[in-house]
Each structure stands twice: as structure tokens, then as C-alpha cells.
Specification:
The structure holds two protein chains of two kinds. Chain A is mainly alpha-helical. Chain A has helices at about 5-40, 45-80, 80-115, 120-150, 170, 175-210, 235-270, 275-280, 315-320, 330-340, 365-390, 400-410, 415-430, 460-490, 495, 505-510; strands at about 155-160, 160-165, 215, 220, 290-295, 305-310, 435, 450. Chain A is globular, with a radius of gyration of 26 Å. The N and C termini of chain B lie far apart (about 80 Å). Chain B has helices at about 5-35, 40-50, 55-70, 75-80, 85-105, 110-140, 160-185, 190-220, 220-245, 245-270, 295-320, 345-349; strands spanning about 185, 270-275, 285, 325. The longest helix of chain B has about 35 residues, at about 5-35. Chain B is globular and about 60 Å long. Chain B is mainly α. Classes of the chains: A mainly alpha, B mainly alpha. Chains A and B meet through helix 2, helix 3, helix 14 and helix 15 of A and helix 2, helix 3, helix 4, helix 5 and helix 11 of B.
Chain lengths: ~525, ~350
């Protein structure tokens, strides 16, 4: 493989991986903040337990997002130095603002939240979590602004061969970003919803299987208690509430992704028509949405693709909001792209061995076609499952079926899959451009960059291969560790996040406060300790 | 002299100095997990001194990187791509270190803890060394061609300066961490840290002093020479203060030493941000590597508001967690009580 391909694989692997952790961090952070707020306002102990338990899982996941996030920032300069030189004037600013205004907030206030359970007044402690969560949402906004500028450059003009920012307002209110941002947030909430639903289902199922909860004559649950720390009546409330919150969040967020996704799709039909035509596997102009296309999508040869099942009018609706406007297919667009951006890469050393090669304007259609459908399919499945889950659990617990429990647990993966598929689709659908041209001819028509020109000219394929192997191996190993820890703490239940539940009053006198002073808990310097 | 690029050069120098001042001690504490702490309780004392703050400290690095990208894209692109493999090491080190902080306490066996202790110690060492090497090389130069790309292969960056810079940041971090532990802990750890500080100061600061002096001989200006001299005085003051038992003042003297040392280095190389060792004509300077005034102006406004804000709430964090940590306060490790795995508990209960 040559340097460019290795660098692309590395960016793809590290980014998709990073974006496993990020949506769970954003979505679960919001949910935990709501739980703690409920505890703060009602004083009900089940909300405290929910905060502690889900908060623990949140932290196990959060740290992985932090650790893999640094790689994202560094690798622009390391592997994509020509890209960094070209776009730095515009693209660097949202990244810098993200660190300065959002990530600092998130990291600092999360540290206060983790360690501040006793040092801070309850209201301030809660506020710290909210500040951290809002920080993570702002962080997402800035990153989406940066990405959206690659999808649809605005607010810049070419000076001395490089885009220079001329209108920051345009960059930060890019219409691409304004629809992608809520779409991403909703996608993150969908992940959190599925996560709550699957895990809470498991615990309710365990309580039934262990004979703690039983079903009464009226078909309603009769919660019980076991002589095990944490497996009491409150525990039942923890899980049924978590399950319902999860299901509702999953359904609302799916509706949100659908609405914002529709807006985004309509924009993309204008801004990157080739991406959308490739998402359809649509070769010729038409109005129909393909439910199933067969043939060799990868061949990039349109004659080999046959739409087996097609719903007339739907494609036009997705693109334009009516059922009759013809949407341009790949064939028609190809001529237009060739006319606008050339048929061959320029004979410039920046393109390395690819200088002068023919430009392939059609993205990898297997990826765009199936990526688009997997995003929608996984998202929709998760929402449907949530709806069914709400109905099935209306009497207060889950069915005794082991298979349904397994389905609920594995269902956690569906929204993750939808997120990954959506991003892979949107990034690979933008190829061969790393900065896609903006079709509005308002002086910005020269701001675009081919991916082939973006890679670091001074970095060898060997170096890139080394980092690809090292990072992939490290990420794979850490994924195993993270999942094992998550499973351990999930199986442990609330008490794994609240060991104090297991302490009898006799213990309290014994070892809990063996420090100096009066032995009151307030004297503990470390309410939370590593 | 161009005003906005100069301001941003100063901002980036401030960000790096802030990073070294803050993460300096948590990198050092990480290394001391293996070098200094005698048992698990002491390791937990060390960890808990930096527990609430280390992540916020690390953001200074991320911000320094992002600000360089935004303000000096050519500096960022040339430096990061030329140092591809060393920065890969830094990344892997930072990944393991971050994960280890969070995961160490979540296992039950000595083997688990020992593995993560090594991850923290080695992660901290390689991160400190790599950052130091990169900073030293951006002051002494890299073999860059006219386009700013590295010539000479994957290891062309390697030089004595890289080693010196790496040792400088490792040494400073270790010493700074000892001063920090003397300030933030109580009991045996506190007193031992102070003794170590007094004994090791001359050795641990030597590489940093060497780097600062070499830069002065190469590029020094009168005021940067003066800064070096005051920095040495600050280091001497730190030594006397620590010996006398004034831990807070010793720590502040360390801060003054870093500030002056960093100012002397960044000040001496200005206006060059990354020299080319192949041809001075290819040097990257604040003028030819910077973003447009529009972008810099926008970011100046944001930084003028944002940076003081960051410093304020981070200072507040340190105030919240201002109390000393001692071994006697470390709670007994909670044996993990899985509600579900241990069903036999039911019969016992």
C-alpha cells in the first residue's frame, strides 16, 4: 500500500473508534446529569443510585474518548501536513476554540464532579456536571463546524493559493454545521438510550431469574428483596426507571435524527450531489428510492447496477420535498464534475505519484449505498425495539425469556452501528475530495482539495504503516479492557459503583473512618479516591 | 514586526509554559509511582494528589497543539510531520497513562494494579521525554526543505538536542513533582519528597539549564541572558526554601524558574519558530508561518476572554482540593462486591 492509502485507513480506524466513545460520552453525560438533577430535586434514593451507577460507566467510557481524542488532533499535522498547511487558516480556528472554550471546561469540571462529592455543596457539585456536559456539547459543535467546512467550505477566499478566512460568522453558522450538529447530538442520545435500555433490561431479567421480583395475579410485577447489598426494593425502581428513560430517549432521538437527517439530506443533494447519487447507487436521473439494488456496486460501472425494488417518488421527496423532480444520477453528474474540476489531477509534485492520473469522481458505491442504509436501518431498528420494550415492560418488569434479554443487550450495538455507518458514509461519500467544492459560485469556487494532495509529503509509507499497526493494536487491546470493565461493573450492579451500600453500620465504626480527627465523614479529604 | 503573529507566538509560549508547569508535576508524579512510592498506599496517595486535576492539565497540551495549528499552520504541519515517530510514542504514552489513571483502581488484583502502575510510570516518562524532545527541536531546528517537509528519512530528527530536551523535561517534571508532593501530602511522603527535592535539584535541572544555555549561546539576546540568570537564582532559591521547609515558596520558586527558563528559550529563538538545518532561507518564522490577521484577530478576542477564564476555574479547582493528602486518609480498598456474581451470599446473609 502507498502512503496515501495507509494514512486514510489510519484516519478511518482511529476516527470511527474515537466516535464509539464520543456519542456515549455526550449522550450518557446528559442522561446522568438529568438523573442527578432528579435526585437533587426529589431526594429519592433511586435517582442517587442511578447517578452513581450510570456515572461509573460514563467515566469508564469517557477516559477512552479523551485518550483517543488527542490522536485526532495530532494526526492532522503528522499524517496530513499538506492538508494542515492548506486549510489551517480556517480549519484550525474551530479546533483551537474547541480546546480553549469546550474541552478545558469539560475536563476540569468533570474532575471536580468525580472528586467533589463531599468537598462541594450538592448544588455546586451538580452544577459542575452540567457545566462539563454542556462543555461536551460545545465541543461537538466546534468539531462539527470544522468537519462541515470540509463538506461545504464557506467564509473564505483563496489568497496566495490557500483559503483565508474572510467571514467567521459564515464559518460558524455554516448551514451544513447547523443541521449536522443536532443530527450528531441526536445520534449520541440514541446511543445512550440503547445503552440504558439494554443494561436495565438485563438487570430486571436477573432479578426475575433470581426469584427476587415475581409476577402477581394481575400480571403486574411484585418487587422483592434479597439479602444481598443493593438488591432491594429500590434496586427494582433503579432499573425500571432506567429502562423507561432509555426507551423514551431512544425513540425521541430517533425521531430527531430522522428530522435533522432529512434536512441534511436535502442540503447534501445540493452541496454534494455526487455523494447522494452514490448513496442511491443511482446511475441515471430519476425519482425512485432504491430499497434493494443488486449488481457490482464496487465496479463503479453503472451498467452493472440494477435496482430490484424501487419506490417511485421517494428519492425526489428525500432530495427536494416533492415526488416528481428528477434527481441527477451518477452519469449526469460525472460530466459536470469533469467539466468543473478537471479530468486529471494536475501535474504538480504535491500529488506525488498520482500527479496526472485520472480523477475518480464516484465514491466507493458499496460503502455509500450500504452505509446510508445501515445508518437508517440500525437507527430505526433501535427505535422500534425501544417502542416494543416500553409496551412489554408496562407492568413493571421484563419477560423471563433469556433470548429477549440477549437481544436487548446486543441491541446496544445498533445505535453505535448507525453512528459509525453514518460517518463512514459522509466521509467516504465526499471522496475524491478532502475539502469538497462548494457548488455556489460566490467567489469560493476555488476552495477545494483532493485527498490525494493532502497527505504529508515528507512522511514515508513505512512510518505510516508503523503507526497504523501500533495504534490499531493498542486500540484493540484497550477495547477489550474497556468492555471487560464495563461488563464487570454492569454485572456488579449499583453496589459496584456504591460500595457504601455494602457497609453495615458496624463497618462504619470500624474501618471507614480510620483517619485522624473526629471520624465524621466530612473529615474525609478523599470522598472519592483512586 | 508583525503584531498579531507576535502576540500568538507569545500565547503559544504561554500555553507550553502552562502545560509544563501544570502537567509537569503530574507527569513527574506518574514517574514517581515507580521510583518513589514504596507500597500501594503511597501510590494511592500520589495518585490522589493529581486525580482531580491531571486531565484538565493535559488540555494545555491539546490547546497548545490546536493553537499552533490555527495560528501557525505551517509550523504545526512541519513540526508534527517531521517528528512523526517520536510523536507517535508520545500519543501511545498519553493514551496508556490516561487510561491507567482511570482503570487502575477498578481491578482487584496486585497484578492488575502493577500493570497499570507501569503504564502510568512509563507513559509519563515517554510523554515527558517526547514533548521535551519536540520542544527542543523546534528551537534548534530540523532538516526541512523549501516546502517545510523533512528530508533524510524517518530518523532525521534525531540529534543530541532531542535527547537533551527530552531529559530536560523529564528532569524538570520529576523535581517539580517532588516539590508538588511536599506541598500536597502529609506524613512520610511529604518529608521524603522534600528531602529528595533538596538532594536531586542540581542533577534534575541540569539538562534544562543546558538547553537554555545552548540556546543563549546560539541565539541569545541581552534580555534572554538576563532571564537565564534570574532563572538560576530562582532555582537556588527553591533549593534553600525547600531545605528550610517552606514548601509553598519552594514550589512557587520552581514556577518562577520554569517561567523564566521558558521565556529565555522562546525569547531567544524569536522570531524563528522552527529553523531549517538545511538552509536558513527555509526557516519558519512568525511572519511566514502564521495565519491571516483576520483569523488571528478572531482568535485573539476569544483567547482574551477564554484564557483568563480557564485559569480562573482551574485555580478554583486547586482551591477546592487544596487539602493535603496523607496515607492515613486513603480509604481501605473496597473489595469488589458484585451483586450478581456471588449468589452464595444469599445463604450467608
Amino acid at each position: 500500500m502507498e502512503a496515501l492509502e495507509i494514512a486514510r485507513w489510519q484516519f478511518g480506524i482511529t476516527t470511527v473508534y474515537h466516535f464509539m466513545m464520543v456519542p456515549l460520552t455526550i449522550g450518557l453525560g446528559l442522561v446522568v446529569a438529568v438523573m442527578q438533577t432528579l435526585w437533587h430535586r426529589t431526594g429519592k434514593v433511586e435517582y442517587l443510585r442511578m447517578t452513581k451507577f450510570w456515572g461509573k460507566l460514563f467515566l469508564i467510557n469517557f477516559i477512552m474518548g479523551v485518550a483517543t481524542g488527542i490522536v485526532q488532533e495530532f494526526q492532522f499535522g503528522m499524517a496530513w501536513s499538506e492538508y494542515s498547511r492548506f486549510v489551517g487558516d480556517v480549519f484550525g480556528a474551530p479546533l483551537a476554540l474547541e480546546s480553549l472554550l469546550a474541552f478545558f471546561v469539560e475536563s476540569t469540571f468533570l474532575g471536580l464532579w468525580i472528586f467533589g462529592w463531599k468537598q462541594l455543596k450538592p448544588a455546586i457539585h451538580l452544577a459542575c456536571l452540567w457545566v462539563a456536559v454542556v462543555g461536551s456539547v460545545f465541543s461537538a459543535y466546534f468539531i462539527i463546524v470544522a468537519n462541515s467546512w470540509m463538506q461545504h467550505p464557506v467564509g473564505a477566499e483563496i489568497i496566495d493559493g490557500r483559503p483565508v478566512m474572510t467571514d467567521a460568522w459564515a464559518v460558524f453558522t455554516n448551514n451544513t454545521a447547523l443541521v449536522a450538529f443536532p443530527h450528531t447530538l441526536m445520534g449520541a442520545l440514541a446511543v445512550a438510550g440503547g445503552f440504558l435500555l439494554g443494561i436495565a433490561w438485563y438487570h430486571l431479567w436477573r432479578r426475575r431469574t433470581d426469584g427476587i421480583d415475581t409476577i402477581g395475579a394481575d400480571g403486574k410485577v411484585v418487587p422483592g428483596e434479597a439479602a444481598i447489598p443493593g438488591r432491594d426494593l429500590t434496586d427494582h425502581k433503579v432499573w425500571i426507571r432506567s429502562l423507561r428513560i432509555g426507551a423514551v430517549v431512544a425513540m425521541i432521538s430517533f425521531a430527531g435524527t430522522a428530522l435533522t437527517g432529512d434536512l441534511q439530506g436535502k442540503l447534501m443533494f445540493e452541496q454534494q450531489p455526487m455523494k447522494m447519487a452514490a448513496a442511491e447507487g443511482a446511475c441515471h436521473d430519476g425519482t425512485g428510492f432504491s430499497v434493494l439494488s443488486v449488481g457490482n456496486l464496487g465496479s463503479k460501472n453503472c451498467d452493472e447496477i440494477v435496482a430490484l425494488i424501487e419506490v417511485p417518488g421517494i428519492l425526489s421527496f428525500l432530495a427536494k420535498g416533492d415526488f416528481t423532480t428528477e434527481v441527477k444520477g451518477v452519469n449526469g453528474l460525472l460530466d459536470q464534475y469533469k467539466a468543473d474540476y478537471g479530468t486529471h489531477l494536475p501535474d504538480n509534485p504535491i500529488y506525488g505519484e498520482r500527479a496526472g492520473q485520472e480523477i475518480e469522481y464516484v465514491p466507493v458505491m458499496e460503502v455509500t449505498y450500504w452505509g446510508f442504509r445501515m445508518m437508517i436501518g440500525f437507527g430505526g431498528l433501535a427505535a422500534l425495539a425501544a417502542l416494543i420494550a416500553l409496551w412489554v415492560t408496562r407492568k413493571g418488569t421484563v419477560p423471563a425469556s433469556r433470548w429477549l434479554m440477549r437481544l436487548a443487550v446486543f441491541g446496544i450495538l445498533a445505535p453505535f452501528g448507525a453512528n459509525a455507518a453514518g460517518w463512514i458514509f459522509t466521509e467516504m461519500g465526499r471522496q475524491p475530495f478532502v475539502v469538497a467544492p462548494n457548488p455556489d459560485l460566490n467567489g469560493i469556487d476555488q476552495v477545494f482539495m483532493f485527498t490525494a494532495a493532502a497527505v504529508s509529503p515528507g512522511v514515508s509509507a513505512g512510518e505510516l504503516l508503523t503507526s497504523l499497526i501500533v495504534l490499531t493494536a493498542v486500540y484493540a487491546a484497550l477495547l477489550v479492557v474497556e468492555v471487560k470493565l464495563l461488563v464487570k461493573f454492569i454485572r456488579g450492579g449499583v453496589v459496584s459503583a456504591m460500595p457504601e451500600l455494602a457497609h453495615t453500620p458496624a463497618d462504619e465504626n470500624g474501618d471507614a473512618n480510620k483517619g485522624p480527627g473526629t471520624g465524621r465523614p466530612a473529615d474525609d479529604v478523599l470522598a472519592f479516591a483512586y | 514586526m508583525e503584531l498579531l503573529p507576535t502576540i500568538w507566538f507569545i500565547v503559544i509560549a504561554v500555553l507550553w509554559t502552562g502545560y509544563l508547569f501544570l502537567e509537569g508535576f503530574d507527569l513527574g508524579v506518574g514517574m514517581l509511582m515507580k521510583l518513589f512510592a514504596r507500597d500501594n498506599t503511597e501510590r494511592r496517595v500520589l495518585l490522589n494528589t493529581v486525580g482531580p486535576v491531571w486531565d484538565g492539565n493535559e488540555v494545555w497540551l491539546i490547546t497548545a497543539g490546536a493553537a499552533t495549528f490555527a495560528a501557525f499552520p505551517l509550523w504545526y504541519a512541519s513540526l508534527f510531520s517531521a517528528l512523526y515517530l517520536p510523536l507517535l510514542v508520545v500519543l501511545v504514552a498519553l493514551i496508556f497513562r490516561a487510561v491507567a489513571f482511570e482503570y487502575r483502581g477498578k481491578g482487584d488484583t496486585d497484578k492488575w494494579r502493577s500493570r497499570w502502575d507501569w503504564a502510568i510510570a512509563l507513559g509519563s516518562f515517554f510523554a515527558a521525554f517526547g514533548v521535551g524532545a519536540a520542544l527542543a527541536l523546534t528551537t534548534t531546528g530540523l532538516p526541512l526543505n523549501a516546502n517545510g517537509d523533512r528530508e533524510g528519512g524517518a530518523f532525521a530528527w534525531f540529534s543530541g538536542y532531542a535527547v537533551l530536551g527530552g531529559l530536560a523535561v523529564v528532569g524538570f517534571s520529576l523535581l517539580h513533582a517532588l516539590a508538588f508532593l511536599a506541598l500536597k501530602t502529609d506524613g512520610d511522603v511529604r518529608h521524603r519528597a522534600r528531602r529528595w527535592f533538596v538532594r536531586l535539584l542540581p542533577v534534575l535541572l541540569l539538562p534544562l539549564a543546558g538547553w537554555a544555555l545552548i540556546i543563549q549561546f546560539l541565539e541569545g539576546k541581552p534580555w534572554t541572558w538576563a532571564a537565564v540568570i534570574v532563572a538560576v537564582i530562582a532555582a537556588a532559591a527553591a533549593w534553600f526554601l525547600a531545605r528550610r521547609g517552606s514548601e509553598r515558596r519552594a514550589f512557587m520558586a520552581m514556577g518562577a524558574f520554569l517561567l523564566l527558563g521558558s521565556a529565555s528559550i522562546f525569547g531567544a529563538v524569536f522570531p524563528v519558530v522552527l529553523p531549517s538545518t538545511l538552509d536558513p532561507a527555509f526557516d519558519l518564522t512568525v511572519a511566514n508561518a502564521s495565519s491571516s490577521d483576520y483569523t488571528l484577530g478572531l482568535m485573539s478576542v476569544v483567547a482574551a476572554v477564554g484564557l483568563p477564564l480557564v485559569i480562573t476555574y482551574q485555580a478554583w479547582t486547586y482551591w477546592v482540593f487544596r487539602r493535603r493528602v496523607s496515607a492515613s486518609q486513603i480509604p481501605a480498598a473496597h473489595s469488589f462486591l458484585p451483586a450478581i456474581a456471588v449468589r452464595a451470599f444469599t445463604t450467608k446473609g
